[in-house]
């Protein structure tokens, strides 16, 4: 059979097929549930948020892996030279020391992921655990004068690190683990005031979900009349904040427990490392209007009428 001119046969990406199959495989779910519960039960206190990276604004784990990875790669370069290299021995030991905080930060992040992400993350952890074991054995061999075996074990460890890195990249870039899931909000919502409903549509102290330019928005009216509005999808993994708990001027995500301050969206507690986009609010003629801060539209009713939505348009709607 001849091929048609100009027609290309596209081969399936085998690597992506394997990774997608790993995401769908429920065979390890019972183990994942057990390990996740134990990690979440660890008495870490405020250290848990430190490990998540709440203080940093993004996850700590990708930064923490640089020490072991850089140390072990440097040791591999030095191992190319004949004879024993004490510098390589030192780098292997340094990498092992740095693996502990890297693993702990990754573990607390993994326990708060979606199931498909956890399936990939578990194998990622297995690969890195194998790497630590191989480098530990390599160091023992090196210190006992068996440099050749130590080198072989080191290169096997580096291979395991490479597999772990591949899976970590899939987690971060294909599955968006650790990404800010509210980042696009300021780029999607149009400038100007948007009417989201009448004041009576927002019972005091209750979380109400509205939509502005197809972006879900959380609106909460306080007993004193002040109205707060945040992006409704949690920055951690897009959990529905409107289904969460409102208390003490904050809202808690129902999925993984991240806590955000209603007044400005600040992430008071993790695992979220990024704050929620917060909206300016006002009440005009008994209706609540919201806008992104600093959009350049005059803070007047006339400005809102021209730049934002008016009653009967799609600028906003309670849901």
From TrEMBL:
Residues annotated as domain Rieske: 193-290
CDD domains the record matches: Rieske
Comp. bias (Low complexity): 303-312
Keywords: 2Fe-2S, Iron, Iron-sulfur, Membrane, Metal-binding, Transmembrane, Transmembrane helix
Region: Disordered, residue numbers: 295-319
TM region(s), chain numbering: 90-108, 120-140, 152-173
Pfam families per record: DUF2231, Rieske
Protein name per Swiss-Prot or TrEMBL: Rieske (2Fe-2S) protein
